[in-house]
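[job 4471] stage=fold_predict status=RUNNING
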Amino acid sequence: MAHSDIAELSTISAQLDDLSHRVEAVGDRYRNSPDSAITNDLDLAERSLIAARRALVRASRALAD
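[job 4471] inference complete, writing structure tokens
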């Protein structure tokens, strides 16, 4: 059962990685615009996605041990 959970967490981690890159790209488009304040929220969202991915990686490692 742990192997399927590890695989699922790996898939979710990859999706979070993709999402964080996409959020970063949107934020970069607004960074030097009159709407640059939106980048603060997008940067926060990006950091949250990165933190979530790291937590899933830690959980995966714990399951693998």
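[job 4471] summary: The two ends are 14 Å apart (CA to CA).
[job 4471] exit 0
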